[in-house]
């Protein structure tokens, strides 16, 4: 269910591979995230994120592939749907320890020259940003770390709760102007689709999930005298406005 996850490395050597080959439950706890794992949802914050971009078809869409929070909440995106897991505090500590061992605690980039439509794997860990171009051709420890972000590999003992659909507080309505050939045209019932935040290829407005009508790629919507196609994208816990969805 999870998209393939990976990290970026650096031209300089990262942490040794030995810290990456072991599963999270085999590593000693560092204690660095235990207290934050007990945070209330109000104090919840992002601690690790992985995103895939690039390629001819634009892998990953608008959602990051993996997001991990200080409460132990892990969100995994695949095919525009998000699944939520909960790690126990000790398991969260071990996973973050392993991320640092893979070199993700410091910003760095591994490039592959001028390659058009290259796949790119990115990690954010605190203020550190890691980027690797053409990861399939690189031998960075971060590339090996990707397997540790697959919930299918997590021991049941590490989970406070298993998989369940993520329930966002708000969804982003991403509208692109243009009609759908031979599709139905309906009247959009919420805020005007053209009066939002401009993002690459779409205009973004926010709405409560319960108020958003069912839609799909074959449905066109009429709003403000124009016709749009609409894509829905859940806001993640660290996202609060449409501006948070802009590429960084």
Using brief descriptors, characterize the structure shown.
248 residues, mainly beta, 14 strands, globular
- Backbone CA Rg: 19 Å
Shape: globular
Provide the spatial order of strands within the biggest beta sheet: 5-7-6-1-2-3-4-8
Say how many strands there are: 14
Helix content: under 10%
Helix-and-strand structural type: mainly beta
Order of helices and strands: HEEEEHEEEHEEEEEEE
Q: What distance separates the N and C termini?
A: 26 Å
Quaternary state of this entry equals single chain
Low-confidence stretches: 1-39, 57-61
- In DSSP terms (H or I, runs of 4 or more residues), the helix count works out at 3
Strand content: 25-35%
| Major sheet attributes | 8 strands, mixed
Description:
The protein is mainly beta and 248 residues long. The chain contains three helices and 14 strands. It has helices spanning 18-21, 89-101, 141-145; strands at 46-54, 66-69, 73-78, 81-87, 108-110, 119-125, 128-133, 159-165, 171-177, 185-187, 197-199, 202-207, 220-223, 226-234. Strands 5-7-6-1-2-3-4-8 form an eight-stranded mixed beta sheet. Strands 10-13-14-9-12-11 form a six-stranded mixed beta sheet, with no helix packed on it. It is globular.
Concise account of the structure shown:
The chain has 3 helices and 14 strands. With 248 residues, the protein is mostly beta strands. The longest helix is centred in the middle third of the chain and has 13 residues.
């Amino acid at each position: 269910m999870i998209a393939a996850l990976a990290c970026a490395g650096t031209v300089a050597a990262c942490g040794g591979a030995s810290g990456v080959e072991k599963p999270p439950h085999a590593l000693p706890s560092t204690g660095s995230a235990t207290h934050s794992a007990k945070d209330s949802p109000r104090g919840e914050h992002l601690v690790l994120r992985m995103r895939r971009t690039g390629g001819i078809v634009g892998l990953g869409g608008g959602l990051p592939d993996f997001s991990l929070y200080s409460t132990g909440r892990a969100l995994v995106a695949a095919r525009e749907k998000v699944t939520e897991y909960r790690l126990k505090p000790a398991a969260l500590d071990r996973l973050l320890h392993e991320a640092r061992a893979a070199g993700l605690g410091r910003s760095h980039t591994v490039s592959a020259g001028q390659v058009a439509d290259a796949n790119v794997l990115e990690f954010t860990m605190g203020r550190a940003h890691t980027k690797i171009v053409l990861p399939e051709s690189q031998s960075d420890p971060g590339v090996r770390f990707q397997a540790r972000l697959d919930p299918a590999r997590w021991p049941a003992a590490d989970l406070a709760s298993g998989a369940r659909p993520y329930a966002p507080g708000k969804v982003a309505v991403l509208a692109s102007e243009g009609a759908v050939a031979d599709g139905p045209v309906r009247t959009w019932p919420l805020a005007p689709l053209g009066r939002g935040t401009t993002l690459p290829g779409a205009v973004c407005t926010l709405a409560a999930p319960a108020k958003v009508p069912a839609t799909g790629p074959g449905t066109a919507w009429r709003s403000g005298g124009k016709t749009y196609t609409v894509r829905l994208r859940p806001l993640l816990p660290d996202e609060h406005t449409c501006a948070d969805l802009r590429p960084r």
